[in-house]
């Protein structure tokens, strides 16, 4: 397994004319991680992923990929595969022919084609022309194309775009397996639930700047108060206990469910007291996930700054 960071970026700046797409971005991604990039439209996610894929070069800063410093010349870093702005495919060719063409271009041989088609669940349509493929099928084929080179760093821009729930589950399974085998995945998504299901760490970008980067758990622990929905065996009694617990604000949202605003330590205390009083906690969930709450708070701050 690799020990060097899969990605180490320091002070990366990238401009398009007057537009500052990335503004002093630092990023650390350890090997074997699935790292999510999230941010509002135009935050710089695709630009950053493009730099990792060697599709563009930073104006300033230092970028190391898989332990090697990326130079100033445009070149795909070794061991890296993926796509931004949708996978580039030939519509007139079949799925298998697309992969064969890519294998020839990259000099990797065609032996792995059936395996990667099976991996993404496209074996049955391998002989069909891509022209007739749905968006989700194209995304899967793009993933298969990236897998063909057995990348140590897989870079994907919105890989779940167009996938139905089963397709998404399948792709998540593929990415998780890859990471378990030691590969690193950096992906962008607008779906907080996908990122929470898949990623160990996330980076939140806003107007080209990193406003958070780290483990998802840190967001929950560090973040300000969140709203939590708590279903119990006795909502009336639970409400009384909540009123007596400091740091808990009852939002009085519904009669049969307790919705409170609290930080994690106060919430822990409330749960302990409920249990002590013999009130069963049947469900406890944030109304808005920690990632979504942080996303809204941190990116709103940036936008209005
Ligand atoms: N080739 C380009 N030429 C000019 N401006 C560009 C180019 N690529 C990106 N930009 C600008 O850079 C900024 C960042 O764009 P980028 O596509 O990286 O954002 P994003 O976070 O991926 O957005 P989205 O969520 O909408 O895909 C935007 O203001 C965009 O208009």
UniProtKB/TrEMBL annotation:
<keyword id="KW-0067">ATP-binding</keyword>
<dbReference type="InterPro" id="IPR003593">
    <property type="entry name" value="AAA+_ATPase"/>
</dbReference>
<dbReference type="Pfam" id="PF00005">
    <property type="entry name" value="ABC_tran"/>
</dbReference>
<keyword id="KW-0547">Nucleotide-binding</keyword>
<dbReference type="InterPro" id="IPR017871">
    <property type="entry name" value="ABC_transporter-like_CS"/>
</dbReference>
<keyword id="KW-0813">Transport</keyword>
<feature type="domain" description="ABC transporter">
    <location>
        <begin position="7"/>
        <end position="232"/>
    </location>
</feature>
<dbReference type="InterPro" id="IPR027417">
    <property type="entry name" value="P-loop_NTPase"/>
</dbReference>
<dbReference type="InterPro" id="IPR003439">
    <property type="entry name" value="ABC_transporter-like_ATP-bd"/>
</dbReference>
<dbReference type="GO" id="GO:0005524">
    <property type="term" value="F:ATP binding"/>
</dbReference>
<protein>
    <submittedName>
        <fullName>ABC transporter ATP-binding protein</fullName>
    </submittedName>
</protein>
<comment type="similarity">
    <text>Belongs to the ABC transporter superfamily.</text>
</comment>
